[in-house]
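Listing S7. Sequence submitted for prediction.
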Amino acid sequence: MPDAPRILIVDDDAIIRDSLQAMLQIEGYQVLGASDLTGALQALARTPCGVVISDVNMSGGDGFELLRTVRTRWPETVVIMITGYGTIESAVEAIKMGAYDYLTKPIIDEEIKLVVERSLAQLALVRENRELRRRLDQRFAISNLVGQDYRMQKVFDLIESVADSPVNVLIQGESGTGKSLVARVLHHLGTRAPKPLIEVACGAIPETLLESELFGHVKGAFTGASTDKEGKFKAADGGTLFLDEIATATPALQVKLLRAIQERQFEPVGSNKTETVDVRFIFASNVDLEQEVESGRFRRDLYYRINVVTIAMPTLAQRVGDIDLLARRFLDLYASKLSRQLDGFTDEALDVLRHHPWPGNVRELENVVERAVVLNKSGRIGVEDLPPKLVERVVSAPINVAYQPASLREALEGPERAVIEAALRCHGWNRQQTADALQINRTTLYKKMKRYRLDQPEVEQVRTT
């Protein structure tokens, strides 16, 4: 049975060792034997085992020494200790050192079978958790944020700078720009990654329920509160609380949020008991919170509290040069999910994608590519696979030229500047690539950039307080 779990039995009493081996082999396990510490370590080095059953007292070193070595070199291996002279003190010591269980001789077959079954179940759970963690780390790695545009490079730099910091982070940008993904990457790159990331879409929860959802409530606090309920603040204790659409919070809730964010303390609805939590806060807004403050719709003191570091997410229209990268990433993703073999996009399809204004930003592009993968029959995404309205909007977009008294040279300056700026953005302000795309030499491009004051890319300021 090559796939059966492997068990190593270590005991200098050959009768006990052989009887345990025979009994466990009958149960379907692969069983190895060793008579001392040296033999046990050599066996484990040759053939890793899921479970080690070791006597405490044996020649050449005791079971506790074996336990220490196994915990260091093979941390996933489960160790079960057995002894003929058990004491409470030695049992406590074994468990503290990481032993799964501690049994006394004479060994009862049913007892050892049950312990082995449970230890293997724990081993399977550990391995499953490790695999889930690996997948989670892979899913929320910073590599999943795609972008060569200088704005996205600034976002990447900020993420790496603050991921391990406890400071509050505000992510601002239009819907569909990737604010939620940035929040998840921030959490999983930091020291709080093993703890929970709790997400709350403030705008999706009715105003009357949002306070209870955040802070919890006690039984009888309001009609329908039949039991105590733990809120999101408590659930995020030790981890991260991500409050999306924070601008939708009512003035009354903003007051309570100010204290909870500042002091990490709150009272559940209907309770006088103050709860204290250790939470890292990340906020997101699809509207400019500074404008909301000026208009009186958002508290200034709360704004200053949450706006310690701001990450500004650019729209997809501002990072045209990333459209090809994102489209190909989504193509690979959905082709894999749907088990399709697709050979990229036609030039015409990419041209349509580049010229679409993308009001839904990256989320809209993802939906368009997913649809194209589902509908494609030719093995390559073409214009015919794109939504008709998207194609029509790009093809039929009117060119509006308002005539003003001026020479032809002066009249063409505006469009020429716009074309050069768009090309620079598309190629991440790389002058050689831009010159090649515009089919002009680099010197000509440089002169025009100086003339139109395009020699330096616009740098958006990142506000910190």
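Caption to Listing S7: primary sequence and predicted structure tokens for the chain studied. The first strand starts at residue 6 and ends at 10. Residues 211 and 253 are 7 Å apart (CA to CA).
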